[in-house]
Write a structure and sequence with these properties.
10 helices
Length: 385
C-alpha cells in the first residue's frame, strides 16, 4: 500500500491527459493528521525545476498537508511561467481539498521532459478527479501514476511497534548523486516532529539514494519528502525510527537500480580500507562512472584493470602497489598486480559485486551502479516524453 500503509493518509493516481499515451500521470497524497509534520531533501543541481523551488519554500514551514505529483513533464527550465504553473497547481489542490488546506502547505513534484510547459488545461481539472479518487487504498495507484521510463512501480513499507513507514518512488534514468532522477514520498503515522523527520531523512538519504550512481547524470527535479501524521499515537525511539526510514529508503534505492534504463546487471561497489569515508565514496563513484568498466560488466568480462584506472583518477589516499580488487569474491588483483585467475569469476547472475581495497585505513562505503547497454543508448536517444 506504499504511502497509504501508514494511518492518516489517502492517495490517488489518475490519468489527467498529461501523457499523450493516456497512461496515469497525476498522483495526490494527503495527510489527514493530526500532525502535518514534514521534511524534504532536494537535488543539489544548481539548475532546479520550478516544483523544487516551490517545495523548498513550502518545507521551510515544516508543515505539509498534501503532495501533488505529475509525470509526463518536468516543468524545469520553463521560466516565470513554469513557477506560476506550480503555484497554480498548489492553489488548485488546496481549493479542491477544502477550506482547511492552504497552498503554502502543498508540495509539488514533477518528472518528465525538461524545457516544456505543462498542459495546465489538463492538469488542473485532473486534480479534481484525483481528489474524488482519494482512498486509503490509493497508494499503489499513486505509485503507478508517477512512472516515466520506469517499467515497474516502486513501493516499500516497514511496520513495528504499532507504527509504520511507507513509501513510493519513481526513477529509472539520470540516477546520480544529489539523489537520483527520482521522486520519493515517504509517510509515517509515528508521532514525530519535523526536526526529527529532517534528521532521520538526511541520515537515510546520505547512505541510500545519494549512493545510487547509475549513469553519472544529475536531475533538476529530485525530491524526497517524508510526512508524519501522528495518527498511530506512538512516539518511537529515534534510533528505531531512523532505522525504519533508512530501511525503506534502501529498499526503494535498490529498486531504482534494478529498474535502471536498459540495465542487465546491478553492480554493488564496496570500497574498503579507505583513510576516510569521503575517500571511499569518491572512489566508489569513480568506479561506478567508468563507462569502459560498465561495458565490460555487460559483456561479463572481469576487467579489473578498468577498476584500478578509475581509482587512479581520484584524490583518495592510496598506494598503487597495495591496491586489491575482487570481483564476485575472486581477488583478481592483489597488491596492484595480477591476482587470482580471472577465469574463476562467474558473472552470469544479475548482481555483480566489486570490492576495492585501498589498504590505507578502516573506512568503507557502498555505491550501487549498473552496466551500460545498447538498450540504454536506444532509450535515451529516443526519449521525448
Amino acid at each position: 500500500m506504499s504511502v497509504t500503509a501508514a494511518q492518516g493518509f489517502t492517495a490517488a493516481g489518475i490519468a489527467a491527459g498529461i501523457k499523450e499515451n493516456g497512461n496515469p500521470d497525476l498522483a495526490l497524497v494527503v495527510n489527514h493528521g493530526p500532525r502535518l509534520a514534514a521534511a524534504g531533501v532536494f537535488t543539489s543541481n544548481r539548475v532546479k525545476a520550478a516544483p523544487v523551488l516551490w517545495s523548498e519554500q513550502v518545507l521551510r514551514g515544516a508543515s505539509v498537508s498534501a503532495v501533488v505529483l505529475n509525470s509526463g513533464g518536468a516543468n524545469a527550465c520553463t521560466g516565470p511561467k513554469g513557477f506560476q504553473d506550480t503555484h497554480a497547481t498548489a492553489e488548485k489542490v488546496a481549493e479542491a481539498l477544502g477550506g482547511e488546506h492552504n497552498a503554502g502547505e502543498v508540495a509539488v513534484a514533477s518528472t518528465g521532459l525538461i524545457g516544456v510547459l505543462l498542459p495546465m488545461d489538463k492538469l488542473l481539472p485532473g486534480i479534481d478527479t484525483a481528489v474524488a479518487a482519494l482512498s486509503e487504498d490509493g497508494g499503489e495507484a499513486a505509485a503507478i501514476a508517477i512512472k516515466t521510463t520506469d517499467t515497474v512501480h516502486k513501493t516499500a513499507t516497514v511496520t513495528q511497534g504499532g507504527w509504520t513507514v511507507g513509501g513510493m518512488a519513481k526513477g529509472a534514468g539520470m540516477l546520480a548523486p544529489g539523489l537520483a532522477t527520482m521522486l520519493v514520498v515517504l509517510t509515517t503515522d509515528a508521532d514525530v516532529d519535523s526536526g526529527t523527520l529532517d534528521k532521520a531523512l538526511r541520515s537515510a538519504t546520505r547512505t541510500t539514494f545519494d549512493r545510487v550512481d547509475s549513469d553519472g547524470c544529475m536531475s533538476t527535479n529530485d525530491t524526497v519528502l517524508l510526512l508524519a501524521s501522528g495518527a498511530s499515537g506512538q512516539v518511537p525511539a529515534y534510533e528505531a525510527f531512523a532505522e525504519a526510514v533508512r530501511t525503506v529508503c534502501d529498499d526503494l534505492a535498490r529498486q531504482l537500480i534494478g529498474d535502471a534504463e536498459g540495465a542487465s546487471k546491478d553492480i554493488r561497489i564496496e570500497v574498503v580500507g579507505a583513510l576516510t569515508e569521503g575517500d571511499a565514496v569518491e572512489v566508489g563513484r569513480s568506479i561506478a562512472r567508468n563507462n569502459l568498466l560498465k561495458c565490460a560488466i555487460h559483456g561479463e568480462d572481469p576487467n579489473w584493470g578498468r577498476v584500478l584506472s578509475a581509482i587512479g583518477t581520484t584524490r583518495a589516499a592510496f598506494d598503487p602497489d597495495r591496491l586489491n580488487v575482487a570481483i564476485n569474491g575472486v581477488w583478481v588483483c592483489k597488491n596492484g598486480s595480477v591476482g587470482e585467475d580471472r577465469d574463476l569469476v562467474s558473472m552470469k547472475d544479475r548482481e555483480v559485486r566489486i570490492t576495492a581495497d585501498l589498504a590505507t585505513g578502516s573506512e568503507s562505503a557502498v555505491i550501487w551502479a549498473n552496466d551500460l547497454t545498447a538498450e540504454y543508448v536506444h532509450e535515451n536517444s529516443a526519449y521525448s516524453s
